[in-house]
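can u do me a favor
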């Protein structure tokens, strides 16, 4: 596995490949089996898999959140070696932003109006900025994103729909209790980790009772459930898969999305219902 820090060296390495398809998996590191499911999806479709590890400052809306973000590059590199990644790209801020660490302005077609976009202003402009920069350097044939970050996936699909890069989505990887794997789980105490099951349980409750109760009632029931938990419910939204806007009644293709916090650690999750394939 090649470990490359400089974009110039990465371009040289990629230019030397002839007629091989390139799959790209962007990450912020602190890798877990969820990330590896993206690497595997890329390996199964592409000749070469490139994974980037870069904690992108422009997508954080709090300095504290950025500095608390878990990082363990040595461990990540060993993990990637074991899982047949071909190239890992680990740029610094200067390599990607040339000394101007700022977001560009993208038209996100209002996909960022609710949920993460509402609670983390500027987050998706930062995500779109860094992904575009990475795409320009790597020029992959395919790029792989997790359904775990559903709104991000839909936004990346939107900004890529006129490019030659095909975006693939990969289902959320969960532990045996249903908790979605997340780098942020590293910051949870054991007790909070155990309590985090409430997030997926709430989603399953809504999915299983969607024909019994209306959305307002389901939201109230989940709110009550959280009042008895150490987690704070930030939002629970039922959204159209096309627009990522809230719906009042269940429709053909929608998702239930949730964000909750404990001890300043913010976790998100979702379930897609009656979905057309996201790929
Ligand atoms: P991150 O390092 O958190 O920025 O995530 C990098 C990529 O991994 C994104 O496309 C995420 O959606 C995806 N990802 C993170 N956690 C999971 C998971 N539990 N299952 C599947 N994909 C995931």
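np, heres the sequence
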């Amino acid at each position: 596995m090649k470990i490359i820090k400089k974009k110039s060296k990465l371009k040289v390495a990629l230019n030397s490949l002839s007629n091989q398809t390139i799959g790209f998996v962007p990450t912020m590191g602190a890798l877990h089996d969820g990330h590896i499911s993206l690497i595997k999806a890329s390996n199964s479709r592409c000749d070469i898999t490139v994974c980037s590890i870069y904690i992108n400052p422009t997508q954080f809306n709090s300095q504290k959140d950025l500095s608390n973000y878990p990082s363990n590059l040595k461990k990540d590199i060993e993990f990637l070696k074991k899982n047949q990644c071909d190239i890992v790209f680990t740029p610094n801020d200067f390599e990607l932003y040339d000394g101007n660490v700022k977001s560009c302005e993208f038209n996100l077609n209002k996909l960022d109006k609710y949920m993460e976009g509402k609670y983390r202003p500027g987050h998706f402009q930062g995500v779109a900025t860094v992904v575009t920069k990475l795409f320009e350097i790597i020029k992959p044939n395919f790029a792989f994103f997790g359904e775990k970050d559903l709104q991000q996936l839909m936004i990346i699909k939107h900004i890529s729909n006129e490019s030659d890069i095909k975006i693939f989505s990969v289902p959320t990887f969960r532990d045996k209790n249903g908790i979605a794997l997340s780098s942020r789980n590293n910051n949870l105490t054991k007790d909070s980790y155990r309590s985090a099951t409430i997030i997926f349980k709430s989603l399953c409750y809504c999915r299983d009772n969607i024909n019994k109760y209306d959305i307002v009632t389901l939201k109230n029931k989940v709110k009550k459930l959280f009042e008895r938990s150490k987690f704070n419910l930030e939002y629970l939204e039922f959204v159209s898969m096309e627009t990522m806007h809230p719906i009042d009644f269940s429709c053909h293709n929608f998702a239930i999305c949730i964000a909750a916090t404990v001890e300043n650690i913010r976790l998100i999750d979702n379930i897609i219902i009656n979905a057309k394939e996201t790929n």
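Residues 2-170 form a domain with the Rossmann fold fold (CATH 3.40.50.620). hope that helps!!
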